[in-house]
Amino acid sequence: MPPLTAERASSQHHATEPGAEVLRLTNVTKSFPGVRALDEVCFDLRRGEVHAVCGENGAGKSTLMKIISGQYQPDGGAIRYKGADTRFANSLEAERAGIAIIHQELNLIPHLSVAENIYLAREPKRGWFVDRAALRRNAQACLDRLGVDIRPDASVKSLSVAQCQMVEIAKALSLNAEILIMDEPTSSLTESETALLFQVIHELKREGVGIVYISHRLDEMAAIVDRVTVLRDGRYVSTHDFAATTVDEIVARMVGRSLEEKFPERTSTPTADVLLSASGLTRKGVFHDVGFELRRGEILGFAGLMGAGRTEVARAIFGADPLDGGTIRLGERTITVRSPRDAIDHGIAYLSEDRKSHGLAVKMSVVQNLTLASMDSVSNRFGFIDFAAEAKAAKTYIDLLSIRTPSPHQIAKLLSGGNQQKIVIGKWLFRQSRILFFDEPTRGIDVGAKFAIYQLLDRLAAQGIGVVLISSELPEILGLTDRVAVFHEGRITAVLNTRDTSQEDIMHYASGHSRPHASGAATP
Amino acid sequence: MSDLSTTTKSVPQSAREPGEPKARMMNDKKKDLIQKFAALASLLLLVAVFAMTSDAFLTVNNGMTIALQVTSIAYLGIGATCVIITGGIDLSVGSVLALAGVVAALAVKAGVPVPLGMGLGVLVGAFCGLLNGLCVTRLKLPPFIATLGMMLVARGIALQITGARAVSGLGESFGELGNGALFRIVTIGDDGFPNVVFPGIPYPVILMVVAAIGVAVMLSRTTLGRHIYAVGSNAEAARLSGVNVARVTLITYILSGSLAGLTGCVLMSRLVTAQPNEGVMYELDAIASAVIGGTSLIGGVGTISGTAIGAFVIGILRNGLNMNGVSAFTQQIIIGLVILLTVWIDQMRNRR
Ligand SMILES: Nc1ncnc2c1ncn2[C@@H]1O[C@H](COP(=O)(O)OP(=O)(O)OP(=O)(O)O)[C@@H](O)[C@H]1O
Ligand SMILES: [Mg+2]
Q1: Quick one: which ligand is closest to A37's CA?
Q2: For position B26, what pLDDT does the model report?
Q3: What is the ipTM score, two decimals?
Q4: Which residue of A has its CA nearest to B3?
Q5: A394 CB contacts (<8 Å, ≥6 apart)?
Q6: Binary contact (A379, B223; C-beta < 8 A)
Q7: Which atom of ligand 1 is nearest to A60's Cα?
């Protein structure tokens, strides 16, 4: 715990100056059935600073944030907000007091519009009625501030995960809070939206807003973070000035040992035989004439900006959305895929980027989620479940992915975000498909576990499985794939050999150019 | 891919005091057990109270009466539970049972053998369920609307084909299913009158036990059951995991319809007349029994054992209140309050 007595004394005089302490938590403790999520954790926040909270999946970061924002009540400890001891009975109270939070999981209401979501329960009124013009105008202003191109009256249902995330951010900004908590705001954003967000964060800092920032993308933190607090296993480890420490040191404090490499060495090279080939894939208004080949043992990246159509192509091949045209071949054989069931029967798996609404059966247990796509392999031919086989499979994947759960029978929604993501990964690994479409598979997963998942993907490729990796993190694409297909507005603008390409090349093609740029190395 | 995790294994859990979390977990399990049996406990409490207030309550004969009265709520409740777990609702069962019973009776009257006629009744129920399911899965109608439509249509047809009159004169064999019993021991007394030594186990009760066990096993031990929960928990995630959501949903409506058909046959058989006005508002008893038993109307949660307890709570309340001379109106008030209370308790438990 950093000694802050001097500042505290002065903060009583200049309580609204940037740098003055606005929040202090002391020895906060919180337990859930079977889990001590927080054990005597201390944390403080000053006006105008970005204070990052780091820790492995399940370390207690989100729980701490939910306590600050009034969603959970601590079992013990004290919260001092603006110089007074405080206990918020619920999140509304905290919001009224000036604390806004962007939750790790998206919480928008799908059938309402973007504007209605942003001003939910605080709609501008004219008399008894909602002032629709003002609603639109205010929402537009929020979105403009973020610089995103989303229409205020678009239905949230029609937005991608990244766009929903931007709406969540806009919503939090519209509260004009004194403390803004961001729980993994960038986990689904590409670099350009992240840059937009960071610009706004800089503005907020100048205005004196205290920002708590949680992310597993440690490299991006240097641009905004002032101080960093590390939690491990629900316990407070340390707080440092960001400038006085390094990412490696932070990681070492998080996991209790140092991690040298971020990406494993690829142990195999793709073979020449084509596992899956797509040509002329078209879905009107979404993507056009998309074609690519996936080889046995290959990891193929899909890169592109938000809304470039990567997810949509994968979903269409998987039978989740209809195709308007094009052919899909498995080896030599042309196949028709009418539903996800068909695709799964053909040995194709698709891990969705949206775990909450498309990935997890949230009310079911960890085991039941892990085996959901593979019930046939844990049941007999009359459909009776072999519970022993199921438990064994679950144990294998809980151990393999180090899923942190008090029991295999814990309800999935009670796990931390990153551990929920691991369940979804485990579900598709257990299915043992030949072709994997992994859409943002490491979303919300901590650095150590990410490395394990990269190793797993490499191992799978070495076994002859074809992997399509859709990722908004370019380093991940560059570090792991053999080739990259770059998408722009529903078309593939280039397929590059990863070894001969660079982040700049990919960005060049992602922004719509179809020829190599002058300075970059030409790629075959 | 076997032991990759060892290379990245995070800080071992042993960082915590070893004994403490375990003790906490045990405590929670106990708590969970107690809460699970809260409904059962209140059931026992009801029995105890009524046993004290009325001498005739705790007798073998009254037990049989209650079991018989509970059967129809239970059949419908079992079907309702499956539908509700998928996130749906079936409002049509009260009307469907009337239609099924009336069709069975008319068939028998027209010379069809009784077992075949009753089979036809169950089929009519299944067919109504199929139509409900198709409206929900193909036409994408909200379940509430689809089954509300069926509720009116089925009742209308039942009234139409009977001319709104009861179908009677069905013969003794038609009453066998509803009034017969297994292992009934009757001796002829000295006075020449039959003397019932043991009333036996009524056929409807046997059917109820068979249906409950069958569906409970289906829900908890088969892939179909697992898929039913998955659809209710997150239909899109289930679909993307390869579950045939439409088929699973359809099956639950067909099951609900079939059980409504069975209920119709049993009820009409008990009276040995087919009433097109039978079963009005029974769907609400069915839904109430499921909800009292812990089934969540949002879907994804529910058990047959819970519903069975729920059915008995309603049945025993009715019977016990009757025996204590409480008026039908007061009964309604009490049952309504019980539903509100149990669901409230259930929600409190889930919120924590
Ligand atoms: N409502 C809850 N009920 C039971 N356990 C919970 C609940 N919320 C969190 N937990 C448990 O508390 C621990 C901390 O969870 P938390 O969500 O705070 O982790 P996190 O640090 O945010 O992780 P991640 O990086 O994966 O988001 C986890 O072990 C989780 O399973
Ligand atoms: Mg979290």
Answers
A1: 1
A2: 45
A3: 0.89
A4: A400
A5: A366, A367, A370, A371, A408
A6: yes
A7: 18
